[in-house]
Specification:
Helix content is about 35%, strand content about 25%. With about 450 residues, it is an alpha+beta fold. The strands form seven sheets. Strands 3-6-9-4-5 form a five-stranded mixed beta sheet, with no helix packed on it. Strands 15-19-20-22-21 form a five-stranded mixed beta sheet, covered by helices on one side. A four-stranded antiparallel beta sheet has the order 2-10-7-8. Helix 5 (about 165-225) packs antiparallel against helix 6 (about 245-265) and helix 8 (about 330-350) packs antiparallel against helix 10. The N and C termini lie far apart (about 60 Å).
Length: about 450
C-alpha cells in the first residue's frame, strides 16, 4: 500500500504575519482624472493574476480615499470574501496610485521566513478565511473602507494555516501549472466560441437573404401574373394566397432584420464613454418611452444628494445632484434599455396586453461597481429557455414573429461586455419573474 503524507500546518494570526499601512488619512476628489486610478475591478480572486502595473491601470474619475506610493499587497472585502491585488513595483507609477473608496487594506509581510507573499494571498482568498469572515464581517452595502465591514481586531485575528516554506512553494507552483492549463483551455474555448458565433451570424444572414429572395421572386411572379400592374390587394398563390401588400411588409421586415444582423458584426464601434448621471437618465428614458402596453416603475428616493457634498471644504456635489454616475456610452445604454423593453413586450407581455404590466427599474452601488436591474411582471421565462439560450445569437423563442430577430439579448450582453460590464438574468422574484441584471464596474458613487 502506498502511504499518503498529510501536510503539516501551523496556525497563525493574520496580525502575526502582516503589517497594515495606515491609508485612510487622504480625503480628496479625483474629478480631474488622476493618471493612475484603481477601483474594485482591479482586485481579483486569482492571486496569480493579481499584479497591478501601469499596463492594466488608467486614468479615472473616481472619488478617492487613499494614495499609495510604495509597493504593497492589497485585499478588498466584498461578499464575505477577499479579492487581492499586488503592487510589486512602482516602475511607471512614480506618482503613486489613487484608490477609489472601497473596503480594502494595504499591507506587507512581516516575516518572509514564515510565509511567502504568494501563499499569503492564496490563503486570503481561500474558503477557510471566507468562513471566518462570514462570522465576523458586518453587512453594509454602502461600505467605503475596510473598517465599515470588519473591526481591525477581528481582521488581524483571522487564522492562517501555514505549512513549511517548501510546501508553500510547491502548492503555489501547482496552482501556477493549473492556471496555465485553465488559461489554455479558456483560450481554446474562446476560439471555438468565436467560430460558433461567426457561423451562427453567417447562417442567420444567409437564412434572411434566402427568405428575402423568396419574397422578391414571389413579388416578381405577381407582377408577371398581373401584367405589371400591382396594388396591395393583388394576390398570388392558389393554395396559400398572399397579398402584394403582405409581400411588401415581409420584404421590409426581412431588410430590417438583415440590417440588425449586419450591425451585430461591429456592435459598439464608434461609441465613446461619458459620465452618465444614472437617475436622470432613467427618468428621461421613462418619459420618452411611454407605452399603452405597460407602465414604468422607478423609485427616485435616495438617488439625489440631500445636502452639499464637500471634500476639504470644497463642494464637489450640490444638494439635488445625482449620486451615481456611470462611465459608459450613452448610446449603448439607451440601446440596452430599448432591447430590454422590446423583449419584455415580445415575451413577458405578449398575449396579456390588457393586464397591469409593469417594467421596474432599480439600481444599487458599492464602491465603483453599480448594478442596474430591469424587471417585468409579465410571463415567466419559457420552460425550454435558459440564461445561455436567452443571450444566444438568434436564440429568442419569438424569432420571425412581428419582425422579431432574436438579437436583442445578444446585443445587450455584447454591449455590456464591450465596455467592461456584464449582463445576467434573474428569475427568482415571483412578482417580477424576469429581470435583466446589468453590472457596471466603472461608476462614480457619492453615496
Amino acid at each position: 500500500m502506498e502511504k499518503t503524507h498529510e501536510i503539516t500546518k501551523e496556525n497563525y494570526l493574520l496580525g502575526d504575519l502582516i503589517e497594515i499601512f495606515d491609508l485612510w488619512k487622504i480625503d480628496v476628489t479625483n474629478q480631474d482624472s488622476q493618471k493612475w486610478s484603481m477601483s474594485l475591478e482591479n482586485f481579483t480572486d486569482q492571486y496569480m493574476l493579481s499584479y497591478v502595473t501601469d499596463k492594466n491601470l488608467g486614468s479615472g474619475n473616481y472619488l478617492v480615499s487613499s494614495h499609495i506610493t510604495e509597493p504593497c499587497l492589497m485585499a478588498a472585502l466584498t461578499g464575505n470574501r477577499f479579492r487581492v491585488a499586488r503592487l510589486s513595483s512602482m516602475s511607471g507609477l512614480e506618482d503613486g496610485i489613487w484608490v477609489d473608496r472601497i473596503p480594502y487594506f494595504a499591507f506587507r509581510v512581516k516575516n518572509h521566513n514564515l510565509v511567502s507573499e504568494d501563499y499569503l494571498l492564496r490563503e486570503l482568498i481561500s474558503d477557510d478565511v471566507s468562513e471566518q469572515l462570514t462570522k465576523v464581517a458586518k453587512e453594509n452595502d454602502q461600505a467605503h473602507k475596510i473598517s465599515d465591514l470588519i473591526d481591525k481586531d477581528d481582521l488581524l485575528s483571522l487564522k492562517i494555516s501555514l505549512p513549511t516554506l517548501e510546501i508553500q512553494d510547491m502548492l503555489v507552483k501547482n496552482d501556477m501549472l493549473n492556471l496555465l492549463q485553465d488559461l489554455m483551455a479558456e483560450k481554446q474555448e474562446d476560439f471555438e466560441h468565436y467560430q460558433k458565433d461567426i457561423h451562427l451570424k453567417k447562417h442567420a444572414v444567409g437564412q434572411t437573404l434566402f427568405n428575402l429572395n423568396n419574397w422578391w421572386n414571389t413579388l416578381l411572379k405577381a407582377r408577371v401574373e398581373n401584367k405589371g400592374v400591382l396594388n396591395d390587394e393583388c394576390t398570388i398563390g392558389k393554395f396559400r394566397p398572399v397579398s402584394v401588400g403582405s409581400i411588401y411588409n415581409r420584404i421590409s421586415e426581412s431588410l430590417n432584420i438583415l440590417s440588425n444582423q449586419i450591425n451585430t458584426f461591429t456592435i459598439g464601434d464608434g461609441m465613446e464613454t461619458e459620465d452618465i448621471a444614472l437617475a436622470p437618465f432613467i427618468s428621461e428614458y421613462i418619459q420618452t418611452h411611454q407605452s399603452p402596453m405597460f407602465k414604468f416603475e422607478f423609485d427616485e428616493m435616495g438617488k439625489y444628494a440631500t445636502e452639499d457634498f464637500k471634500i476639504k471644504g470644497k463642494s464637489v456635489l450640490h444638494k439635488g445632484d445625482p449620486l451615481i454616475y456611470l462611465v459608459f456610452p450613452k448610446q449603448a445604454l439607451t440601446q440596452i434599455f430599448d432591447n430590454i423593453v422590446s423583449n419584455a413586450c415580445s415575451h413577458g407581455f405578449s398575449g396579456i396586453e390588457d393586464k397591469n404590466n409593469t417594467v421596474r427599474i432599480s439600481f444599487n452601488s458599492m464602491g465603483s461597481t453599480c448594478t442596474v436591474t430591469v424587471a417585468n411582471n409579465g410571463k415567466p421565462m419559457h420552460k425550454d429557455m435558459s440564461e445561455e439560450k436567452v443571450f444566444m445569437y438568434g436564440g429568442s423563442t419569438a424569432v420571425g414573429t412581428d419582425g422579431h430577430n432574436g438579437l436583442g439579448a445578444f446585443q445587450i450582453r455584447n454591449l455590456m461586455s464591450r465596455f467592461g460590464g456584464s449582463a445576467n438574468i434573474d428569475c427568482d422574484d415571483p412578482e417580477f419573474p424576469f429581470a435583466y441584471v446589468l453590472t457596471f464596474h466603472n461608476c462614480i458613487s457619492y453615496k
